[in-house]
Amino acid sequence: MKGVVKIIIILGLVGVLALIRVYEYRFFYDPFMYFFEQAYQSGETIDFSFEMFFNVFLRFSLNTLVSLLILWVAFQSWGIIKFSGVIYLTFFIVLFPLFVYLMHHVQPQDYLAAFYVRRFLAHPLLILILLPAFYYYRLQAAANQKLDRN
Predict the structure, then answer these.
(1) Can you give the pLDDT at residue 38?
(2) Sequence-separated (6 or more) residues with CB below 8 Å from residue 69
(3) Structural domain of residue 19, as residue ranges?
(4) Residue 134, SS3?
(5) What pLDDT score does 150 carry?
(6) Could you give the number of structural domains in the chain?
(7) Helix (H) and strand (E) counts for the chain?
(8) What is the mean pLDDT of each run of 10 residues along the chain (150 residues)?
(9) What is the C-alpha to C-alpha distance for residues 19 and 116, in angstroms, rounded to an integer?
């Protein structure tokens, strides 16, 4: 794939990530968004249900899928996709149960911890780390190959 085409596709996929964020209120029930916009300052408690956990899972899954597509377009390496998939899965296995635990056991004044764990799950933060990391890895591998040839 040509460089310009890759960049256009990656920008389109970043646009999809942005659309997931823009339409989060419309498609994903998440009382945390409303709670921290209005009710948190007044000391109210949050009402949450299973649906909130499912929607956090759904957003994480959509963001992960689009992020893996970005990595595929950028590097076209199954090794990178498999490694990234393991990282995303590990990230989910650690943070999702922590989020559920915090929601069920945290006092109202400590909701901020649960909010930030939810933020890591609901937003595509890992792609901001993985994309430059794999790019740097590729640059280093290419530089090492040049050194080995000489």
Answers:
(1) 67
(2) 13
(3) 3-149
(4) helix
(5) 66
(6) 1
(7) 7, 0
(8) 91 95 81 67 68 90 97 96 97 95 79 85 93 94 81
(9) 21
